[in-house]
Amino acid sequence: MPGAPSLRIRAATETDAAALLAIYAPYVAHTAVSFETQVPDIDEFTGRVRRYAAQWAWLVAEHDERIVGYAYGSPHRGRAAYRWSTETSAYVDASVQRQGVGKALYLALFEVLAARGYCQAFAGMTLPNDASVALHRSVGFEPIGVFRAIGYKFGAWHDVAWAQRRLRDGPPPA
After folding, report:
1. Are 135 and 100 in contact (CB under 8 A)?
2. Distance in angstroms (rounded) separating the CA atoms of residues 19 and 114
3. HEC assignment per residue over 134-156
4. 86: left (phi over 0), alpha (psi -120 to 50) or beta
5. Model-level pTM?
6. Mean pLDDT confidence for 58-80
7. Which residues pair with residue 20 across a beta bridge?
8. Contact 51, 75 (CB under 8 A)
9. Backbone torsions φ then ψ of 98, nearest 5 degrees
10. For 87-144, how does the pLDDT look when each residue is reduced to its tens digit (9 = 90+)?
11. How far apart are CA 137 and CA 112, in angstroms?
12. Helices (H), strands (E): how many in the chain?
């Protein structure tokens, strides 16, 4: 599938929310990859798509006209000095994992975020997660640290590794 003409990356719309939530829900319900403990309802998730797509970016990957993954930028921190930094996330349907979908999404996302003026991207990965660490390394993220025992889910503490990738040298001129 990687590089195949049938893999199409495009901007997400609110009408994609149900398909995106279907990809995300198993990560919430069955893994510590997401630290959410309850699957969000469709209204909450649609609101996320609307907010993040408007200010950062939210992209979807389609294969044979079916959404198989997504990636988005979101706020890194709330204070004004952080406005040129973004946190990024990518989720891929289990049926197409390790086929280049996450990498294609991230590379497209970085272009959009850089064009919007964002300078640094950050990503957190619950450990252990060799596939996520490899994905982030393959698209240029560099490790910057580990928050030990930061999240408690499914009766256990989980570490989160953080990585950073430069998107552009500086913000656009004022």
Report:
1. no
2. 27
3. HHHHHCCCEEEEEEEEEEEECCE
4. beta
5. 0.94
6. 96
7. none
8. no
9. 65, 30
10. 999 999 999 998 999 999 999 999 999 999 999 999 999 999 999 999 999 999 999 9
11. 19
12. 4, 7
Instruction: Give the pLDDT score at 1.
Output: 52
Report the C-alpha gap between 57 and 109 in whole angstroms: 7
Site of tokens 């919007």: 116
C-alpha to C-alpha distance for 109 and 100, rounded to whole angstroms: 14
pLDDT of residue 9: 98
Q: Encoding tokens for residue 166?
A: 């430069």
The answer for residues whose C-beta is within 8 angstroms of residue 167's C-beta and 6 or more apart is 86, 110, 113, 114, 118, 119, 120, 121
Q: Which amino acid, one-letter code, is at 148?
A: R
**Best CA proximity match to 45, nearest among 15, 17, 16:** 17
What span, in angstroms and rounded, lies between the C-alpha atoms of 30 and 57? 27
